[in-house]
Design brief:
By secondary structure, this protein is α/β, with parallel strands linked by helices. The chain has one domain (about 5-235): Metal-dependent hydrolases (TIM Barrel), CATH 3.20.20.140. About 40% of the residues lie in helices and about 15% in strands. The protein has ten helices and nine strands. It has helices spanning about 20-35, 55-70, 85-90, 120-130, 145, 150-160, 165-170, 175-185, 210-220, 220-235; strands at about 5-10, 35-40, 45, 75, 80, 105-110, 135-140, 160-165, 195. It has a six-stranded parallel sheet. It has a three-stranded parallel sheet with strand order 1-2-4. It is globular and about 45 Å long. The relative contact order is 0.16. Bound molecules: fe (ii) ion. The site of fe (ii) ion has 5 residues, from loops.
Length: about 240
Amino acid sequence: MGLIDLHVHLLPGVDDGPATPDEALAMCRLAGADGSETLVVTPHQRHELWPNDDRGALQRAFEALQAAVGPSPGLVLGAELRVDSEILVEVDALPGGSLLSLAGSRYLLLEFPSLPGGAEPVDIVHELRIAGWWPVVAHPERIPWLAEDPERLIELAERGALFQLTAMSVTGDFGRRAQACCALLIDEAIAHFVASDAHNATRRAPRLSTAFRAVAGGWGEQTARRLFVDNPAAVLADRPLPAV
Ligand SMILES: [Fe+2]
């Protein structure tokens, strides 16, 4: 069964992902050997350190990587969009603006800042849903002000937010608190995806198989399939997530 990794930093030199094309290639080989069939390449965009507002440059870097990797694992382009109060204006300019959705779909991978006080996520999610987008909140379990506020997470899910957990949080590599938040979201059936959020070929590597086994062991094979295969496949196909 081919796993699908929705969140990987793979373009060399554009953010805090791999520094060189060789490292990016090594990450792709590692992901393929670990069972990933498709990787969505998600460079940071709108981040203060890595704005990456030249979409054409990202596209060219992506094509160069794809040519080096060959047919397997499959690569598609997306981005991880830093959220602030201005994001709605820029999303309005899609398609044709500077921002990238996940694989050209209606799904947007959103990175909320690690400190509270910026844009209110409930409002952002609400506005994006009205505009026809499916907002995917990247790793809520690693954002303390979200992770510590289960009621807000549940409200966000009710408003249409989708949650992407990070594989290393699920396995406990990012500590007990992140792992407990993942367990809560899976228990409540409001976890939608598990992705690697890999940045390199060593400590933050694109491995999903260990987390897949952890979810299958704790919640059953069907839940694991949904989070690692079926839901991500719906993103690639630009379809709504399958009903639970
Ligand atoms: Fe990321």
